[in-house]
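quick one, 389 residues, struct below
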Amino acid sequence: MVTGATPAAGRHGTVVLLLASSTGGVGQHVRSVARGLAAAGATVLVCGPAATEEQFDFTGAGARFQPVEIPASPTPADARAVAALRRALAAEPVAVVHAHGLRAGLVAVLARPAAPLVVTWHNAVLARGLRGALSRVAERVVARGVRVALGASADLVERAAALGAAEARLAPVAAPALPAPRRRRAAVRAEFGVAAGQPLILSVGRLHPQKRYDVLVDAAARWRGRTPPPVVVIAGSGPAYLPLAARISAARAPVTLLGHRTDVADLLAGADLAVVTSDWEARQLFAQEALRAGVPLVATAVGGLPELVGDAAVLVPAGDVDAVDAAVRELLDDPNRRAALGRSGAARAATWPTEADTVAELAALYAALAGDAPGPAAPGADAPSTGRR
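---
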């Protein structure tokens, strides 16, 4: 149950949450928001690809679901997605439409909803060439077409404001709380053949070029000569699976690709060290999960990660195999520092906004936009604001 959340714009109609194709953080966030709003008494409709309902079970979280097929990349089918969203919005009174991510945001802007439109920027545009150029055009269209642009990290807020958003604000995305581990540490380590005294290194995330798992694989190949060599496992699925598997084989790296896992809490219970090698992240969910679990973290100093972890993790430059190698070696050789980082990580995590805080701030924003509450359209009085009013 969400504490402090009010029925979001409840007297004015349904809160519509829209997302595109997702297998990870965005879908988890939308489910968390839907669950919290529904528990607070709001009527919530989630629109997105049918596959997202299968994976995240929005109806099980208390929302209704309407299929709107928005693939990860632009296609001619976007016109059908716009039409499907318009039909969904016309079927009932709508208080606010909140799209998550650039793809969903573009469909929402093109649908021209009568209700106020909010879009959360979850990711930066990293693509180059024609795809990158088209994505940057879409960014500008979305920024100029929304009532409020929310950024999951400060750099995304600045980006939305620079592109012309009338109101751009920080809205940190809290990682959903993990359940308690179901297995003991020894059982988790036994699954991967980790011997006594042998380190287990964990990374969790979508297998996508942005995550730069190639850097982790290349660093891990250097650890074969350590005594004992660490076992490295990567949990997640995605389009980079085959290239990564080939790279692991060619480098003879001690890395296992686990595929999609639902037992991240167990994996963290068995891990000695967590690693994030991404080219960019906002508030990566796995980084939050690792610090909450007290697992020491090595992460790249990109996007919102430095503001997220502070000095409670070891930060390295993106794309730097030498830096990842050195940071991991130093921590593996210094158990006291690992323990200290684990403690400081847990303390840092205790200062972050919770899921309940996130839902309460969004509920206040929706109510303000719908006319239920006085004051500016803002997710929180202490949230920094960038952009025109």
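Confidence is low (pLDDT under 50) at residues 373-389.
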